[in-house]
Amino acid sequence: MTGTHTALIEKINRIQPLNPIMMELLAAIQNQDSQATDLEHIIRSDANTSATILKIANSPFYGMSGRIKNVRDACVLLGFDQLRNIIYATALEHASNGGPHKIWCQKLRRHTLATAIIASELSLHMTVRIEKGQAYSLGLLHELGKQILVSELPDLFHEYMNTQGQPEQESIVGTLIEAGTIIAQKWRLPEVFQTCIRFALVPSDPPEAFQNEVILIRCAHQLAQELGFDSPGDQYTPSEPGALLHYYPTLPADVITETIQDCINSCPDLDRSTEEAQS
Fold first, then answer.
1. Confidence class for position 162, pLDDT limits 50, 70, 90
2. How far apart are CA 234 and CA 242, in angstroms?
3. Which DSSP state fits 207?
4. Where does the record place the HDOD domain (predicted)?
5. Residue 66's pLDDT is what?
6. Burial grade of 229 (CB within 10 A; 0-12, 13-18, 19 or more)
7. pTM of the predicted model, to two decimals?
8. pLDDT at 120
9. What is the fold of 102-279?
10. What is the DSSP secondary-structure string of 88-128?
C-alpha cells in the first residue's frame, strides 16, 4: 500500500483548490492587523468571490436574508467573526463544488455544518474555554480532507465508501486525514486547525497546547452523528453515556442537548425534509 499511498499524496499535493483571491483572503483573516475594510477590498476585486460571499451571507442561517446588498454591507453588518466564517464557507464552496458524488457531498456538508453549530454552542460554557467564532470554524473544517477529496479524487472517495467497516478502509482514512492537513497548510490555516484536522477523528493524544480544541471537535463530531447528521463512511455507534457526558461530564447535558437541538432545528440548511427531497 505504501506505493499507492505515496502516489495519492503526490496527487493531493498537486491539487490547487483555490483561486489567488481566496488565498489572499485566507491570508488576510489570519493577519491580526487586518480590518474589515482590507477584506472588503480583496473581496471586491473578484466578481465570483463577491457573488459567493453575498450568497452565503444572505443564507437563512446568518439571519440576514435580503439585507446584505453588497460587500460593504457584509463587512459592516456581519462583523469580523461571522465574516471570517463566511470566508471559510466560501473557500469550501469553491473547492468542493464538483465531482459525481453529489449526495455524499451534501451529507458531508450537513454533518460539518451541524458539527460547527454544536461546537459553537458548547463553546459558550466556561468548561470549554474556546472562543465561539473559532469553535464554529474548527467544526466547519474538521473533515477538510474528505470535503475536498470527495470532489477532487472521487475514485478514492468511492473506494473509501465501498470499504466501510473493512480493514482496508483504515489506510484510506489515514490518507484523508493527511490530505486535510496538507490542504490546511496550503490554505495557510493556523496551527490549531491543522491539529484538529489531524487528531480530532483518531484516538491519538493531541499536542497539549490544543487539547481543548480537539476535545471540543471530537465531542461535536460525535454529537452531530448522535443527532442524525452522519459523516459519510464513518461507522459511528453511539455508546453510553453519549458524547456530551463522556467529554464534558460536569455540564448539564439535558439542557445543552435541548439548546443544540433548537439551534439545529432553526437552521434551514439542516432541514431534514430538504435532505429527503435531494435524495
1. very high
2. 17
3. P
4. 15-203
5. 80
6. buried
7. 0.89
8. 94
9. Hypothetical protein af1432 (1.10.3210)
10. HHHHHHHHHS-SS-HHHHHHHHHHHHHHHHHHHHHTTSTTT
Place of cell 435541548: 258
254 sits in the region (left: phi over 0; alpha: psi -120 to 50; else beta) called alpha
Q: Is 66 helix (H, G, I), strand (E, B) or coil?
A: coil
Residue 62: how many other CB atoms lie within 10 Å: 18
Name the grid cell of 254: 439535558
Residue 193, pLDDT > 70, answer yes
The C-alpha cell at 174 is: 489515514
Q: Tell me the CA distances in angstroms from 279 to 104, 193, 258, one per residue in order.
A: 10, 31, 27
Whether the CB-CB separation of 56 and 93 falls below 8 Å is answered with yes
Q: How many Å apart are CA 89 and CA 191, to the nearest integer?
A: 19
Q: What is the residue extent of each domain of the chain?
A: 1-97, 102-279
